[in-house]
Amino acid sequence: MKTLLLSLTLVLLAGCARGPQIDTRFVSANQDSRVQYIVLHYTSTDFLHSLALLTHGEVSAHYLIDEDPATVYQLVDENRRAWHAGESQWQGRTWLNASSIGIELVNRGYDDTPDGRVWYPFSDAQIDALIGLLKDLMKRHGLRPGSIIGHMDIAPQRKVDPGPLFPWKRLGEAGLIPWPNAGEVARKQVLLAAQLPNVLWFQHQLSSQGYAVPENGVLDQATRNVLAAFQMKYRPARYDGEPDAQTAALLLVLNTAR
């Protein structure tokens, strides 16, 4: 009798150890990937320090791409949340860690010098490696062009990465993000220069892009920061946060094509 009771106890314990029995034969068609966005960053430091921060510091990312050689390292499984976005918002979604993949590029970012801010460029090989990774991620997660954004886009009041030297246009040429037609922008710019839209128009257009921006008709610092983030992406030669005809034309062409 004792032997029988012991055997039954062991069977029950084994069942508990395996967890509940779950039938997975039926799959709902109403689902998509947890991943809705891919957020690009630079690390502001060299590879070894970047690796230490992202593996043992208070932040993390799913992928780290070194400069030389241009190697892609996976640091967090895509099904798990990495701590890379912080307080953030895009297209009405907030705290994007839970719905995004974070990619960090080894890059020093910038230095502030007596002659102004000096930014560090990205190597062609590093961007080639990034584009290859992005194409794979977009395909596997069923993401559309426009799902790739910068840290400056989702947190324009406190972040500027990946900065004005990041080659967003190359991502546009690869079909990864929407890119405005230069001829159409030039035609719209001529028309808009004759009558520049008011600040509220700019705020509405930036909101349509996905930015969290005040919509109060006032050119306050928060609005300037969002304008600068947009300009840094689509017109990096000048990103002063001032509303002008070229910025208006870029916004209009991009939003019309949506």
Automatic annotation (TrEMBL):
<dbReference type="InterPro" id="IPR002477">
    <property type="entry name" value="Peptidoglycan-bd-like"/>
</dbReference>
<keyword id="KW-0961">Cell wall biogenesis/degradation</keyword>
<dbReference type="GO" id="GO:0019867">
    <property type="term" value="C:outer membrane"/>
</dbReference>
<dbReference type="Pfam" id="PF01471">
    <property type="entry name" value="PG_binding_1"/>
</dbReference>
<comment type="similarity">
    <text>Belongs to the N-acetylmuramoyl-L-alanine amidase 2 family.</text>
</comment>
<dbReference type="InterPro" id="IPR036505">
    <property type="entry name" value="Amidase/PGRP_sf"/>
</dbReference>
<dbReference type="GO" id="GO:0008745">
    <property type="term" value="F:N-acetylmuramoyl-L-alanine amidase activity"/>
</dbReference>
<feature type="domain" description="N-acetylmuramoyl-L-alanine amidase">
    <location>
        <begin position="23"/>
        <end position="163"/>
    </location>
</feature>
<dbReference type="InterPro" id="IPR002502">
    <property type="entry name" value="Amidase_domain"/>
</dbReference>
<protein>
    <recommendedName>
        <fullName>N-acetylmuramoyl-L-alanine amidase</fullName>
        <ecNumber>3.5.1.28</ecNumber>
    </recommendedName>
</protein>
<dbReference type="Pfam" id="PF01510">
    <property type="entry name" value="Amidase_2"/>
</dbReference>
<dbReference type="InterPro" id="IPR036366">
    <property type="entry name" value="PGBDSf"/>
</dbReference>
<keyword id="KW-0378">Hydrolase</keyword>
<dbReference type="InterPro" id="IPR036365">
    <property type="entry name" value="PGBD-like_sf"/>
</dbReference>
<dbReference type="GO" id="GO:0009253">
    <property type="term" value="P:peptidoglycan catabolic process"/>
</dbReference>
<dbReference type="GO" id="GO:0009254">
    <property type="term" value="P:peptidoglycan turnover"/>
</dbReference>
<dbReference type="GO" id="GO:0071555">
    <property type="term" value="P:cell wall organization"/>
</dbReference>
<dbReference type="InterPro" id="IPR051206">
    <property type="entry name" value="NAMLAA_amidase_2"/>
</dbReference>
